[in-house]
Fold tRNA N6-adenosine threonylcarbamoyltransferase.
Amino acid sequence: LLILGIDTSCDDTGVGVVALQPGGQVEVRANRIWSQTVHAAYGGVMPELASREHVERIDAVMQDALEEAGIGVADLGAVAATSGPGLVGALLVGLMYGKGLAQGLGIPFYAAHHLEGHIFAAAGEAELQPPYLALVVSGGHTHLFDVVREGEYRLIGATRDDAAGEAFDKIARLSGLGYPGGPAIAEAARRGNPKGVTFKEPMTGQSGYDFSFSGLKTAALLAHRAGAGGEDLAASFQAVAVKHLLKVTLRAAHDLGRRTVVVSGGVAANQALREAFGASGLRAVFPGKGLNTDNGAMIALAGAAAIRAGREPGGLADGATAYAPLANV
Ligand code: ATP
Ligand code: FE
């Protein structure tokens, strides 16, 4: 069964194709992304501009995805699109496009949760068999879920302030390393000394599973003002951020008896983070190349999981929602 996945939750128009085999295995056949550049001049995403760009691009991105998969639109067996959380106007474009396509083709439509998409982005790499932990580290989330059974997500910890990706972006900006901040910090960190700037690890006193990044951001700003070099700042911040993410996750895994952790979202592209989790003793599963940041293939993978689990397809009434906590979908 070939599933088309669409994500237009923010400023990337993503369309992907995933093949779901009769045995339940999944394989990514295409993953095309158009990253909007109109927002650069504003220093942040302008919601209305994002919606308009999605409208203009989505058809071309879908044609690219079909071409990459070597299929025609009539070969599709199901369509999935993100319904939330995200920018409502942006979400609506992909959601309505997906619904219309599914209805026109007479195939089932699945509304997907963006965070479930981020988690299932890793499903092409390994079989995700609950129970496992899922750490979503992205531009808007630093959320730790205990996936108790298929479709049941218990939020056990989250950032109390900034998301991890937001901290990467802000620290890159204040130290003049450019945008997007994650890759810029990672690149500069390779030449920096991780002990060059002293950062206090956040929330060492807690017994729970929350995160905090705003203190690191402030410390970075002060260090920058005191003359710390961008490379040392990048290496030192990256090291303490990774340490913090890993320590909280390890505590949760120990307390709950979990052995597998799925780490996904844009920050999961970070090589230092991958190495640290890989050497942690946990079975760490990451999304494949191009599937960490927002994309359509991850939504097709979430659709495949829904189909595999026998969930009912959505109706045309599924609306877009800006705020949508992931719990027991
Ligand atoms: P959300 O899913 O929470 O709504 P988002 O979709 O905007 O947020 P993603 O696209 O998943 O977020 O991830 C973007 C974030 O990932 C950015 O903050 C970016 O800096 C970060 N990022 C990307 N690559 C890396 C990297 N190599 N190291 C660290 N961070 C990275
Ligand atoms: Fe995202």
